[in-house]
Amino acid sequence: MGEGTTARAALCVLILAVVCAGSGAPRTQQPRDRRDGVLVAAGLGAAQQLTVGHSPRSDLIGLWQSVLWADGYSARPSVTCTFDQATAEATRVWQSNHHLSADGIVGPATWGAAAERIVPVGQWMVYQGERYGLPLRRTPDGVYEVYDAGRFHRLRTDAVTLTRCR
After folding, report:
1. Rounded to whole angstroms, how far apart are CA atoms 37 and 112?
2. 11 C-beta neighbours (distance < 10 Å), count
3. What are the residues whose beta carbons fall under 8 Å from the beta carbon of 159, sequence distance 6 or more?
4. How far is CA 7 from the centre of its chain?
5. CB–CB of 162/11 below 8 Å?
6. In 3D, which of 70, 66, 67, 97 has the Cα closest to residue 79?
7. Which of 36, 59, 62, 77 is 20–30 Å from 88 (CA)?
8. For 58-140, where are the E strands, in sequence order?
9. What is the DSSP string of 17-44?
């Protein structure tokens, strides 16, 4: 595989982990949906909103930035795991183009719209971006894992572990 293919696969997995978690998740299960800072199957709907100035760096932000990249709204180097003004602006455009309130905040409606583009592919799931696909997988205990630096690892909602963001 070439460098672009490997990088694309890594970003694909990252995005799917967060997005897939939100599909159909009840918003009342917040304590059960995040275990020790990892995203679990019903966690996306209960995940904290991503906003400029209020969201600490995390793999979760990296996942959202990867969705923006997969859909062509930002460049690959913009996946930094930091929710900055550039990410908020790209989010506004993405939201507007997906018929959502363009407030630049990533919450349940935005995650839900992204989750609609996740499909099963073998043992993985793939976010079908407008330009790239983003793969991920779920462990038997319901924790999402992303592909990063040649291996799968748990998606963190409270820390930055992705190689791309360090």
Report:
1. 21
2. 30
3. 37, 58, 59
4. 15
5. no
6. 66
7. 36
8. 118-121, 124-128, 133-138
9. HHHHHHTT--TT-HHHHEETTEEBTT-G
Q: In order along the chain (166 residues), what is the average pLDDT of each group of 10 residues?
A: 42 41 35 51 61 93 94 95 97 98 94 87 87 85 80 85 89
Token pair listed for 88? 């908020």
pTM to 2 decimal places: 0.76
Angle at 138 between CA 132 and CA 142, to 5 degrees: 145
Specify the residue for token string 């919450």: 107
Question: Can you tell me the distance from the alpha carbon of 112 to that of 139, in angstroms, rounded to the nearest whole number?
Answer: 21
Question: Residues for the chain: how many in total?
Answer: 166
- Residues 49, 55: contact at Cβ < 8 Å? yes
